[in-house]
Each structure stands twice: as C-alpha cells, then as structure tokens.
Input
Amino acid sequence: MISEIIIPKLGATGGDVTLDEWLVPIGAFVNAGAPIATLTTDKATVELEAFRGGYLRAILARPGDTVPIATPIALLADSSDEPLGEYAARAITNLKETTTLLTANTDAVESQISNQKSAIENRKPQPPPQAPIASSSIAPLLQLPFLLALFRSMSLIRRFEDTLYQLFLQGLVPGTLHQYQGQEAVAVGVSAALNKDDVIFSTHRPVGHLLAKGSSARGVAAEIWGKAAGCAGGKGGQMHLCDITIGAPPSNAIVGANIPIATGAALAFQLRGEPRVAVSYFGDGATNIGAFHEGINLAAVKNAPVLFVCENNGYAASTHISLTSRVPDLAVRAEAYGIPGVIVDGMDVLAVYDAAQQAVSRARRGDGPTLLECKTYRYMGHSRGDPGGYRTQHELAEWRARDPIERLRLLLVAQHNVSPDTLTAIEIETQAQVDDAVAFAQAAPEPEPSLLETHIYA
Ligand SMILES: Cc1ncc(C[n+]2csc(CCOP(=O)(O)OP(=O)(O)O)c2C)c(N)n1
Ligand SMILES: [Mg+2]
Output
C-alpha cells in the first residue's frame, strides 16, 4: 500500500511551509514516529515524522520548495519497489541533484548541535541514580486501590498525549502542543496529596496537571479543538486550559507568572481561615524569572499555604539547565527564602506523593510553603514545533528506562501480586476514554460568535 505523507498544520498562522531537507534516503525503511524531513514554518524549524512505518518510496518535493498545508510531500510503501501508480509522473525517486544542498545544510546544523552538546556534556549534572521500581519504602503503607488509581491516572495522561501526537502528525489537531509524556508522576503524585477544593496553577504544559486533578478528558480534548464544550469554552486552547470545577484557574503560558498568583490565592485562603492549599507548577526555566523570587519570598514571609512544584526536566525550550544556572539542584534556592527545599525523583510517583503529602500537611497546618524540585524529563520536544535535536538519543534512552508508568507496573506486579492483565485492562479502558474524548471533541459544535466578548475583564 502507498500512503501519502502530508504537511500537517504546524505553524501558528497556518501559512505555507518550506521543506528544508530530507533526513532519510529514498528507499530506506522508516519506523512510525521517525523524523523524515525538516520543515520551516512561520514559527520554527520542525521535524516531520512518519505517521506509520514503511519504505520512503519517493518524494514529491525538493529541499527549498514552499509547500502549502495538507500537500503530500512523500510516499511511504510496504516494499522498496512497490509500483508508484498514479504518482509515477511527479515522484522523485533519486535525490542526487539535491545532495550538495543536503550536505551543506547538514554540516552547518550538525556543527551547531555538536557545539551545544559538548558545552552541555562538560557541565551537565548527572540524573539521579536509577531505581528500577517505584519507591518501595512507602509502598507497603498504601492500599492497592490507591496504587491502581495512580496507575490509571498516569496511563490516562500518557494515552491522551500519545493519541494527540498521532493525530497531530496527520494534521488533525489545531494549533501546537506542549506535551507531558515522561512527567506524569509529578502531576499524579502531587494531585494524590490534594483535596478537591485545593487549587492548582498550571503552565503552558497543562494537560497532565488538569487530568490528574480530575478534569474530564472530554472537556480537555474539546478545549484543544477550540470547541464550545471545552473546559475554557473553546477560548483557551491547549495552553490555557481551565476547569474551576476541579480547582484549576486558567493555566498561564507566561513562564513563571503563576508563582505570585498561587501565593495570592494561598493568602486569600489564609485570610478567610479556609484549610485550602494552592499549588504552583512551573519548570526549571521559570526559576530564573523575577516572579519566582517575588512569589516565593512573599509566601515565605506570610507563611502562605502554597506548594511550589518545580518540574526540573533539564531544559527550558532548547536550553539546558547547566547553561542558565550555576546550581544543578534548584531546591537549594529555597534556603534563600527560609523555607524547606526538597529534591525528589520525579520519575517515581510514590516518592512524589510522599514528598507532596508532607509539604501539603505542613502548609495546611499553617507552617508555610515548600519548594519541591522534581527531577524529571520530557520525552517529546518542547512543543510540537521542536525536533529536540539539542539532546542525545542516549540521554533520552536513559530517562525512558526510568519511565514512571513502567516502574509502578513492576512494583504492582512484583510486590502486590497484581496480574499484568489487570494493568493491561486499565490501559485499554483509558485508551477508550481518550478515543471517546477525541471523537467528542471533533464532533462538538464551535463556540457561538456572540460569546466572543464574554469572560473579558476590563
Ligand atoms: C516570560 C516568558 N518568557 C519566554 C517565554 C517563551 N517560552 C515558553 S515556554 C519556555 C520554556 C520554559 O521552560 P521551563 O520553565 O523549564 O518549562 P518546560 O517547558 O520545560 O516545561 C519559553 C522560553 C514565555 N512564554 N514567557
Ligand atoms: Mg524545563
């Protein structure tokens, strides 16, 4: 079978895309998800990935060509000599004439990447020691239904994000995506320590935070598709998810901006005498923003009930933490504010839960905020426009070997006698939940134009 690889909707404005280079020779086999070409949109240079496995049988565009969205640019086939049929007239089956361009481009990019990689290798902190399964110290204290709920929640987030990724490659998701695969243990471990009326303040990467706190997959999906049934009425999109019913005011894509806002919410709880806690999620990149200092310092001096959760995934967009901070452990900054700074393995949901629970109890009894640094990793690029070429496959593989879902699976099977089939059944259920959410979102009506000016504060 011959399948077309089309240009998905990559750019912010949906404009034309320039094909920069082919990354795979014609005739080679490519796996599903493997990058096959680089493209430049109105926003960034991105990699185009194969949405299925197959042989790159022919290409339909040359490096330098400008191609509109939805145009087929390559053909994947089940064999390297499959007949080209209707495509025969326009298919390019030999890239020789473009190889000079290819080599020149590749050399410049390679040397840029290798410079940054060697700068990083020289100063990079090592990931925390590998623990093969989730933290067993508190595991025996926890009931099986609770552990299974953590597994279900992480599985739902992973399935949701993976499904969106597949649909994105087919050009079926509007806008861009900032994905959460790899970081699930943080949102799920923290949420498990919270009450329903506690609030979370999220970032440009909010899907996992909201699903873990209990937002419906349908509401989140419909928001990503900009539909009226979306959790923000279709006005927010992926970066501005919002669900007041589960304690999630609008997520904030301005890096670090939610930190003082979470402090403000916590001060309100304190003034009203309510036993509620506010959580601010932010990345390593946010710890160099002024709002980090102001928000944490104010919370510290007022003993505000906040939990500051730094998801240190090692990168702010394409920049490694070692290039922006002289200290590899961001939790040490807590000392400057006179509050506890705790480092936790963010790939271990039980360790995150344990640390979050202690910090939340502390906040609830009036002893003030904690800075919790979760060492974690994002498997995908910064956004769907980021090929992630600034990190090595080795680094990625090292972190994937510590996958939070697989670690909890091992623990459940080895220490709680859970049958692997029980866990597979949970994953089938969460996939069905995601498929239902996507179908719902795609079929849902658009927001009414008359509502355009509602929910505006002036
Ligand atoms: C104040 C501000 N500066 C720059 C940006 C552009 N930007 C969006 S996300 C991002 C990187 C954030 O990195 P980090 O805080 O580590 O979070 P991560 O993406 O790793 O989850 C940048 C620079 C922004 N949104 N806001
Ligand atoms: Mg980061």
Remarks:
- The pocket of magnesium ion (ligand 2) is lined by residues 283-285, 313, 315-316 (CB under 6 Å).
- The chain has a mean pLDDT of 89.
- The chain has two domains: 3-100, 131-443.
- Residues 20 and 63 are 5 Å apart (CA to CA).
